[in-house]
Design goal:
This protein is mainly α. The protein contains 7 helices and no strands. The two termini are 19 Å apart. The relative contact order is 0.17.
Amino acid sequence: MSKRDSHELLIDDIIECGDKILRYTHNMSYDDFASNDLVLDAVIRNFEIIGEAANRLSDDFKDLYPTIEWHRIRGFRNRIVHDYAGVDTTIVWGIITNFLPDMLIRLKSI
C-alpha cells in the first residue's frame, strides 16, 4: 500500500468517526449528552480513533493542509485517553458543536 493510499484510509477513518459523532449527538442538548453514558462513551471512543488516525498521518501530509488543526486533534486524543480522573463533558460538547463540523468539511474537501 502506498503512502497516498494509507493517508486516504486514515482520512476516511477520521471522517467516518466524525460523522458518527454528529449522528449520535444529533438533536441532543448538552444535558441530554452529558447524562447519556452510552452516547458519551461512543463519542469518546470515536474521538480516540480520530486522534490516533491523525497521529498516524505523516508530517509531510499534514503540512499540505495547514488549515486543519492537527496538533489540537492529537492533543485532545491524548487528553481523553490519559485523563484517568474523567473527561470534561463540556469540553467534549464544545468540540462537537464548535470544531468538529468545520473540521469534517475541510477533510471532505481533501
